[in-house]
Amino acid sequence: MTWNIVCDSSCDLRMAAFESDSIRFETVPLRLQVGDREFLDNDDLVVPDLLDAMAEEKSASSTACPSPAAFARAFESGSCTVCFTISANLSGTYNAAVMGRDMVLEEHPEKKVCVIDSKSTAGAMVLLVRRARELMESAAGPEDFDVICDQLRLYQAALRTCFTLENFDNLIKNGRMRPLVGTLLHSLGIHVIADATPQGTIHVADKARGEAKTYKAITALMKASKDCTGAEVVISHCENLPGAIKLKQQILADLPVKNVEILPCRGLTSFYAMEKGLILGY
Ligand code: X90
After folding, report:
1. Contact by Cβ (8 Å): 238, 207
2. 164 forms bridges with which residues in the sheet?
3. Within 10 Å of residue 206's Cβ, how many Cβ atoms?
4. Predicted confidence band at 184 (pLDDT cuts at 50, 70, 90)?
């Protein structure tokens, strides 16, 4: 019997960074198309190479979700699988995973596969993976599968996501977010802060001028969004470790969170967050 955690590559946890003796972990890569170059978002992807290609490329760039067969292959490798995907309102990935589950269950009805829409991406998915690992490690056996899935759905609903980017071009050009209007678009030094709605769509929440005020506005937004007492926070950054460290310090100063972890964005989140982007899951 193998416990199996699968997620798409928008989860900013590299496969090599997952630690467990008893649980298998796999990320299924999305594909990133930059001009006529295609990048597969796996552990081998070098994010600075992707960003260089994006900076050089003038024609449209896009991304594509994994195939149902790619998910089916990942699900076949375990007996009890929990799969987390990027928000179904942002990507076809969730539907591909559900189709992959149906393919596997047709061949192997004895297997268990639960696909959960994270209604988010990035750090929130890292937190879901970690919680799944803890629950699986303390489970008695496969009979605990349904309870574990219920607990993960509750945890998903309690998680929040917000982010600030220097550049919203790829999100807007690829239709994942409505264009920014007027002053937001043109004022130098204005930082837009956005968050995830409960449905997993993107919402422009606030704006602030300058770095320090932006981080304060983020902690105010976090405070208003839920009781952050004891919360675990994951900051994903796209080539912006100094910004992530300053944001972490602001969070620790303003909120009673348990801890703040900083991770570099993998490929998919780098493609959309673009250089200097910061994404928080908590
Ligand atoms: O199917 C595909 O090609 C993938 C499409 C992904 C689209 C958006 C990814 C955005 C990641 C910004 C953080 C957004 C958090 C919002 C949660 C609702 C980077």
Report:
1. no
2. 193, 278
3. 17
4. low
Q: How many Å lie between the centroid of ligand 1 and the Cα of residue 277?
A: 13
Q: Is 200 in the pocket of ligand 1 (CB under 6 A)?
A: yes
Could you report the per-residue pLDDT of 25-50, keeping only the tens digit for each?
999 999 999 999 999 999 999 999 99
Say if ligand 1 is within 6 A of residue 121 CB.
yes
Place of tokens 């932006």: 214
DSSP state of 233: E
The CA–CA distances, whole Å, from 23 to 4, 58, 196 equal 6, 43, 30
SS3 content of the chain, % helix, strand, coil (to 5): 40, 25, 35
pTM, whole model, 2 decimals?
0.97
* Phi, psi angle pair for 191, to nearest 5°: -110, 130
The protein residue whose alpha carbon is closest to atom 10 in ligand 1 is: 272
Mean pLDDT of 122-149: 97
Tokens 């969070």 correspond to 251
CA-87 nearest atom, ligand 1? 18
Helices (H), the chain: 47-56, 68-76, 93-107, 122-137, 145-158, 169-173, 182-186, 211-225, 241-254, 267-273
pLDDT in tens, 159-183: 999 999 999 989 999 999 988 876 6
Token readout for 66 is: 């994994």
The residue whose CA has the least distance to atom 4 of ligand 1 is 91
